């Protein structure tokens, strides 16, 4: 009986392809847009991701995201170190500086100052150079993407000299960092060196990054730090989420991308629902015959669902493949770093595809259930 | 034929879809960034773990502070009382000196000339004194002469007096002319005057002698002695001036820095860059800045541990010396040129052996002090 359902489905190939494309297009839109959305908002917390050693971030109580910073007093570092449960704490400097590129143009860049002793805060992935060279005078590490922007068209190499606020900066290492929301050029240098590059105020320490000791959770230690120092302390994931939430609440990104996703779902439902309905209508005669020879309603429903499931499976597969191909090929472009298709988006789009198919099948089933077997004889 | 084709198409569609799906899933897996757990390569200064285990969790709090290594009693910065050009520098950094060892020699030519002048002046005044002493004998002789003149006058006067009395006595008066009587009277008067004159001469000679040989005070001699003393003092002053051109170590210790070279000019004032810095560096002191908000939690008998910047792991235990009674604005020692004031700190001095800490003067250390304030 189910082979008859399959025969029915594949009999009209044009309609089958139409059904599949409807689901595929919907899946593609949802995955591509949500993938970009998640990649984009993740950039808001990229600086946090680049310090995987630490699990606690301490900042001024008024800080809402990673771009608006109120520097802390230097003595706060000692206070945070004294809080029970803090295994270690190091300063982290973050500031925007203007850099003159190789061809004389100005670019905004991010300057991260990492702890002098331990270099905590430097991204773990070093593409070129030795990280200990950062201890040399005037030494900076630059992100791969930043290098391409500052020294356009030059092969990636070490030893290039840039100018940061009138001071000399020698590239001693190329690192791979998470792509940022605002600027794609990131320089990493020692904390003391970073102060030299930006010397612009009494208080300089942007953040303190710390590690919870032993078996204590970062959340508990953070609460401890907040209670004892009056500063805001958050675990790394929480801070990252806070930065992402800020983007969600304060930009139009969720609305614009949400609209496209909704349209994708709507188009999917409309196209697939109508086509499936049309398909069932066209094959109503066959269903009537089956009914006339005594096939039960339950079995007919099973047939319709099988047809719908096959359409959904094929359509979803094609759509998902298309979406992953998009991220694969686009991901090769250096300006499109950090975008990927999270598995939960793929799974969610699968659920949406299933919902579209079930809706379409339910809609079409009405006709199959109430078909009068007599129509076979009416010609 | 048609049926086979349809079967193959349906099979291909489903299998192809399955293939695409597995491909897509693999791609998702591959491109999803891994959550990286990165361990710290170099451990930052941490609160000492060994002591944490000896304390219960509820009490294992620490006061963190930044310390600076300094000589015992802080560094002594050597200055000069006199300005001048440096002729010789006797010490180099790291040299151990004793009290009084010469450190710097300023050019002393004018001071030496002053000494010679003062010596000549002293000699002149001394000679004058000797000259005065030599005059005493002559004056004595004059006094003796005056006394003998006085004796003569006394005798003459007595003689004249007797002659006069004899002339005036009865019996004789008729024997002498009035003229003779008058002459005798006048002679007596003259002898009296001569006697008074000789008395005055004796007094004069006595006074002259007294100026040089008087008891208890010989005024002229005293004046000259004072002049000699003055010349002696002038010599001492010139010699002191000469000595001050050699700057000497005020105490035993190690030379920490020498910022002056031969031929440079040294002003006699307080300098931002001291000429020479010295101090006692065994044991070393660690001056710890404790934030004002941590002061209530500080106890002097709490265990304190210092970790060097740039080195990790276990720190060195410190010995409490004293707490500075004055809470001062923090001099921020982040290494920038401009020193900034942002909060007040209490300074606590700890002592540590230089071998144990392996640090030199001026180095910064991270210090952890146990918070035992809750135990009380």
What does this structure look like?
The complex is a heterodimer of chains A (379) and B (376). Chain A has 379 residues and is an alpha+beta fold. Chain A is 52% helix and 18% strand. Chain A contains 13 helices and ten strands. In chain A, strands 1, 2, 3, 4, 5, 6, 7, 8, 9 and 10 form a ten-stranded mixed β-sheet that branches. The radius of gyration of chain A is 29 Å and the shape is elongated. With 376 residues, chain B is an alpha+beta fold. Helix content of chain B is 43%, strand content 23%. In chain B, the strands form two sheets. A six-stranded antiparallel β-barrel of chain B has the order 1-8-12-10-9-13. Chain B has a four-stranded antiparallel β-sheet with strand order 5-4-2-7, with no helix packed on it. In chain B, helix 3 packs antiparallel against helix 4 and helix 3 (109-168) packs antiparallel against helix 5. The longest helix of chain B has 60 residues, at 109-168. The interface between A and B is large, with 61 and 59 residues.
Can you tell me the overall shape of chain A?
Answer: elongated
* Low-confidence sequence ranges of chain B: 49-59, 334-340
Oligomer: heterodimer
Number of domains of chain A: 2
Give the termini distance of chain B in whole angstroms.
Answer: 97 Å
In short:
The complex is a heterodimer of chains A (379) and B (376). Chain A has 379 residues and is of the alpha+beta class. Chain A has helices spanning 2-11, 13-42, 46-49, 75-81, 144-150, 191-198, 218-229, 236-250, 253-282, 284-292, 297-330, 343-369, 375-378, and strands at 56-59, 86-100, 106-114, 125-129, 139-143, 161-164, 167-176, 186-190, 207-212, 232-235.
Question: Which features characterize this protein?
Answer:
heterodimer, A: 379 residues, alpha+beta, 10-stranded mixed β-sheet, 13 helices, 18% strand, B: 376 residues, 6-stranded antiparallel barrel, 6 helices
């Amino acid at each position: 009986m189910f082979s008859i359902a399959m025969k029915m489905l594949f009999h009209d190939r044009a309609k089958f392809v139409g059904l599949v494309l409807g689901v595929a297009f919907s899946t593609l839109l949802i995955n591509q847009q949500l993938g970009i959305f998640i990649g984009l908002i993740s950039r808001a917390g990229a600086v946090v991701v680049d310090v995987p050693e630490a699990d606690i971030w301490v900042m001024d109580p008024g800080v809402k995201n990673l771009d608006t910073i109120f520097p802390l007093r230097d003595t706060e570092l000692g206070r945070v170190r004294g809080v029970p449960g803090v295994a270690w704490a190091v300063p982290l400097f973050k500031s925007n500086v203007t850099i003159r590129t190789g061809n004389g143009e100005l670019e905004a860049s991010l300057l991260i100052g990492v702890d002098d002793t331990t270099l905590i805060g430097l991204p773990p992935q070093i593409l070129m150079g030795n990280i200990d060279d950062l201890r040399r005078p005037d030494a900076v590490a630059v992100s791969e993407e930043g290098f391409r922007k500052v020294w356009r068209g030059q092969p990636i190499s070490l030893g290039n000299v840039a100018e940061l606020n009138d001071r000399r900066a020698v590239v001693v290492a190329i690192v791979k960092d998470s792509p940022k929301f605002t600027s794609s050029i990131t320089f990493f240098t020692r904390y003391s060196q970073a102060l030299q590059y930006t010397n612009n105020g009494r208080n300089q320490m942007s953040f303190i990054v710390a590690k919870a000791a032993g078996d204590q959770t970062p959340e508990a230690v953070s609460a401890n730090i907040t209670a004892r120092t009056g500063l805001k302390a958050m675990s790394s994931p929480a801070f990252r989420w806070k930065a992402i939430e800020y983007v969600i609440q304060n930009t139009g990104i969720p609305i614009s991308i949400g609209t496209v996703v909704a349209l994708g779902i709507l188009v999917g439902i409309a196209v697939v629902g109508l086509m499936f309905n049309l398909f069932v209508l066209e094959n109503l005669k066959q269903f009537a015959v089956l009914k006339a020879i005594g096939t039960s309603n339950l079995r007919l429903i099973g047939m319709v669902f099988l047809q719908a499931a096959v359409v959904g499976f094929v359509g979803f597969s094609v759509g998902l493949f298309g979406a992953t191909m998009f991220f694969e090929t686009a991901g090769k472009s250096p300006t499109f770093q950090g975008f990927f298709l999270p598995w939960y988006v793929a799974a969610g789009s699968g659920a949406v595809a299933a919902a579209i198919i079930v809706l379409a099948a339910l809609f079409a089933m009405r006709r199959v259930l109430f078909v009068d077997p007599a129509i076979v004889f009416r010609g | 034929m048609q049926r086979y084709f349809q079967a193959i198409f349906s099979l291909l569609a489903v299998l192809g879809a399955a293939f695409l799906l597995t491909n897509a899933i693999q791609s998702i897996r591959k491109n999803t960034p891994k959550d990286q757990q990165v361990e710290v390569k170099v451990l930052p200064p941490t609160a000492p773990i060994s002591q944490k285990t000896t304390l219960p969790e509820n009490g294992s709090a620490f006061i963190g502070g930044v310390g600076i290594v300094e000589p015992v009693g802080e560094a002594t910065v050597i200055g000069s009382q006199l300005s001048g050009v440096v002729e010789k520098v006797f010490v180099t950094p790291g040299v151990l000196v004793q009290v009084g060892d010469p450190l710097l020699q300023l050019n002393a030519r004018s001071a030496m000339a002053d000494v010679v002048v003062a010596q000549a002046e002293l000699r002149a005044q001394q000679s004058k004194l000797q000259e005065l002493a030599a005059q005493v004998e002559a004056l004595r002789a004059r006094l003796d002469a005056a006394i003998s003149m006085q004796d003569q006058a006394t005798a003459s006067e007595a003689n004249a007096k007797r002659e006069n009395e004899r002339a005036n006595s009865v019996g004789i008066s008729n024997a002498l002319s009035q003229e003779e009587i008058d002459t005798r009277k006048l002679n007596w008067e003259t002898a009296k005057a001569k006697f008074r004159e000789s008395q005055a001469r004796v007094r004069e000679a006595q006074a002259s002698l007294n100026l040089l040989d008087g008891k208890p005070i010989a005024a002229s001699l005293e004046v000259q002695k004072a002049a000699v003393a003055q010349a002696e003092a002038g010599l001492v002053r010139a010699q002191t001036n000469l000595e001050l051109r050699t700057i000497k170590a005020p105490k035993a210790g190690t030379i920490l820095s020498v910022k002056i070279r031969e031929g440079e000019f040294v002003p006699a004032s307080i300098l931002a860059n001291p000429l020479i810095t010295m101090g006692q560096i065994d044991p070393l002191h660690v001056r710890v800045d404790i934030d004002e908000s941590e002061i209530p939690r500080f106890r002097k008998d709490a265990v304190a541990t210092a970790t060097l910047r740039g080195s990790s792991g276990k720190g060195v235990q410190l010995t409490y010396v004293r707490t500075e009674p004055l809470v001062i604005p923090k001099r921020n020692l982040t290494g920038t040129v401009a020193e900034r004031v942002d909060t007040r700190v209490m300074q606590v001095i700890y002592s540590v052996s230089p071998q144990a800490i392996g640090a030199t003067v001026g180095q910064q250390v991270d210090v952890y002090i146990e918070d035992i304030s809750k135990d009380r």
